[in-house]
Each structure stands twice: as C-alpha cells, then as structure tokens.
Amino acid sequence: MQILTSSLENGMISARLLIEYSDILMAAGQQAAVQQAIVELSESLGVSDVHYASVNEMTETDMGDIEIAVEAAVSPEVSLGQYKGLKIKIGHNEDFEKAALSAAADNISVDIPELILDRQLDSIVNEARTEVLQSTSLHTLADIHSIIVRLNIELKDTSSEDEVWERAKKAAEDYIDQSAQEVELMVASIKKVCKAKDERIFRGIVTRAQERSKLSAEEIAQQVFEAYLRTENKTMEQWRNERRDLAEKRCREELMLKAVIKTENICPNVMEVQQYAYELACGYGMNVDEFLSYVGEDGIRAQLSREKAIKLIVDSAKG
Asked: Could you tell me what percentage of the chain is helix, strand and coil, using 3-state DSSP and rounding each to the nearest 5?
C-alpha cells in the first residue's frame, strides 16, 4: 500500500491511497485490503483509533491496483467527569438507565470532530427514513408528485418545484380523505390541480406504477422521505440542523462509554464472549459458530464491553 497524499486536520483524516494488486490478493479481496490500508494509514499518522472511515472515490487500474480517496474521524480525547455514584433526578415516567447515561455524558469534556457529528446525523436520517416508510399517505404523496411532474413535462408547464409540491399535497390530501384506492378517484384528485385530460392522467398513474416497481428500496425511501420533508415545509439541511443537539448527545454518550471501558479496563474473557454470543445467536435463531462468523468476535466483545460499562454506571447511580 502506498500513501499518495494524507492530511490530519481538526480531527479528520483525508488521504489518497494506492492499494496494489498483490495487497488485494494477500487480503483475499478488495474490501479487506481497503480496511487494512486504512489501519496502516492511521498508524502512519500516529493515531490508533478512527471512526466512520469511508471510501469516497475508487479507481481501478489495468494492472488490478486500486486508487482510493478516504476520510475518517480520529477518536477525540475524552476527559471523564463523574460517572459512578451519580445522583439522578428523574420524573415518574422517565427511563432511569437513559437518565443515568445522559448525566454521565454531560460530565465529560470533549471536542467532537465534525465528521463524527455528520455521521451521527446520517444515522438519525436513516432511522427517520425507516419510520416514515410505514406511512401510506407519504407513499401516496410521493407517487402523486411524480405523476404531476411527468404531466407538467408533457403539458410544458413551467411551474416551480415548490408549486408542484403544493399541488401534489392538495391532490394527495383530497384523495386520502376519500379513504379509497380506486384509480378513478386518484385521477379526479389530480385533475383538480393539473389541467390534463382524464386519459393522460390515467396513463401517468400507470406509468408511475410501472416505474415504481423498478425502483430500489433506497430510491423509494428517498422519495418518501422527500415527501415527508415537504409536509414539514423543511429542507434536508433545516431538518438535520434541528437534530444536531440529538446527534451531539448520542456522540457524547458513545464517547463516554468508550472512555469508561478504557478507564475501567473492561475486557470480557473468552467464556463471557461465548456466552453473550450464544444468547444473541438464540435470539436470531442461529447457532453460535454461524453467528460469530457473521458478526465477528471483536464485534461481540465490543458490544459486551459496552453493556458492562452501562451496567457499571446505572448500578452505581442513585435516583
């Protein structure tokens, strides 16, 4: 592996790496070779712990080498405050464990790299996408918006994007209020906001259904989430900014737990890892060996260490 360029600024690593074909063969695959290259890169920069390493570009040469552009966040230094024996003020319906972890996280001192916050926000977006996918009305809005966009192109309608979404919301609301799924009713609802003949609207509905069946799950999730944002009258940037405090809270808790694991020297032994893996495997209906090959022993040990750190904090806290 050759480091073509590299930099470490504000807790973020940026680099271009050349991974030779022989490295890929030695690692038994591109993915493993990339992971090993990132480890070597971090070691060369004198850092031992990185988060959210990602490949932004990849180019393959005629010789089978690959050149990649990577970025990663360096795990920041964490100064722990009090995390044992915390006195927790908690309401009747509040979760004691969450309250204890939140209090311990509030006591740490840390500068969180922007990349870590961004990735945590990405995770929150993905959670929201999964949640809104359950909404039939948002699926309907996304479909009607797509239909109106196509009709506007055919009719040479130059309405703005905001205007199109407003029409789509009105048509979707009208259709949903009828609590029915007949195509004729959708045609009628769309006709109220779009100057097109019934036959043209009907063809648009059929075309959308055909195109939708070819979309990937990710593409559908993206369209439905866009429909959700439009109902909230927010851009993605505004929505993410509103959840920045939540992202920071999650980051602080994870970094706090990681620091507690290190400070308390929490390191589960082989028997504990096997027992924990067995319990998790049973929950997924898998045997232990199969589960370990899929998740990896390091992943099991990391999760068990996290559970032990949580237990240490919660068990010593006082309500």
From this structure: 60, 15, 25
Residue 133 neighbours by CB under 8 Å, 6+ apart:
220, 221, 224
Cβ 86 vs Cβ 98: under 8 Å: no
Cβ contact 69:57 at 8 Å: yes
Terminus-to-terminus CA distance in the chain, angstroms? 54
pLDDT by residue (tens digit) across 28-72? 888 888 888 888 898 898 887 888 888 889 998 888 889 999 999
pTM equals 0.82
Q: What is the 3-state secondary structure (H, E, C) of 244-277?
A: HHHHHHHHHHHHHHHHHHHHCCCCCCHHHHHHHH
Contact 15, 50 (CB under 8 A): no
In the three-class reduction of DSSP (H, G, I as helix; E, B as strand; rest coil), residue 303 is classed as helix
Rounded-to-integer distance, Cα 4 and Cα 18, Å: 7
CB burial of 25-57 (b: ≥16 within 10 Å; e: otherwise) equals: eebeebeebbebbbeebbeebeeeebbbbebee
Task: Please give the radius of gyration of the chain, using alpha carbons only, rounded to the nearest integer.
Answer: 26
More confident of the two residues 296 and 156? 156
- In the predicted structure, residue 300 carries a pLDDT above the cut 70: yes
At 92 the pLDDT is: 65
What distance in Å separates the CA atoms of residue 93 and residue 184, rounded to the nearest whole number?
48
Which parts of the chain are beta strand (E)? Answer: 2-9, 12-19, 50-60, 66-74
CA distances from 252 to 116, 125, 309 (A): 10, 18, 14
Q: Which of 83-87, 120-124, 272-276 has the lowest mean pLDDT?
A: 272-276
